[in-house]
Amino acid sequence: MKEVVLRNSVVLLALVAFFAAPTTAGTILLEGNYHGKNLYVQNPFASEGVGFCTFEVKVNGQVTTDEINSSAFEIDLSFFQLELGSAVEIRISHKDDCKPKVVNPEVLKPMSTFEVASLGISKEGVMELTTTNETGKLAYVIEQFRWNKWVEVGEFEGKGSPEKNDYEIQLTTVHSGQNRFRVKQKDHRSKPRYSFEAKINSPLPDVTFQPGDGKKVTDAINFSDATLYEIYNAYGNIVAKGVAKRVDVTGLEKGVYYLNYGTATATFKK
Between 160 and which of 15, 36, 137, 154 could a Cys-Cys bridge form, CB atoms 3.0 to 4.6 Å apart? Predict the structure, then answer.
């Protein structure tokens, strides 16, 4: 009689384990940085109609204490006392026959929060930038003011640390006279964040080009020195740009073109 009771107990425990744990499972993996905001999850019923889809959530390897047995729940990242900008890995384990949905995964994406402690340009044309409060690795874009607009002239990778970050970038587009530079970042919100301007006066001579403003060009434009340039067609579409001392224009169709170079603007006919 005792042996029969023990056997029945083993069978009962096995059945409980079978129904309590999913036989197959899937995982949603989210990685990013903590920006002071929590995640929200829509959590459907399992397909068999018993219980909800999600059965475990881990943040940086630790199981959360959030109440996940509901149709929607919040992953409270503040519970883990994370510093702003620190790396976060979230694993949402769910039954294989259903899938929860993270409503706002963008809160883990890098955000442009940098502040400029100092920005200057040496006589050698080296931009020296010191930032603080970076909370995610994002590229910095260098812009230079020329031809009455801000033009992108370089890019470098941000370090993403909230502490002090030092950068040194050799500028290759310095022109004659006063030069104005700034840096910007753009995150997933698509709104750029700018630094203040840094200025430098250069003794370089003005760049000229042959055959000259308004003249006809057959094969190439020749500058007096390597320079940043842009060529636009009569419809205002850019057809060529770069940094060069000689620009081959044999591939351009016949017509009038607008040329930005050095600190000047001109036209030429092909």
Answer: 137
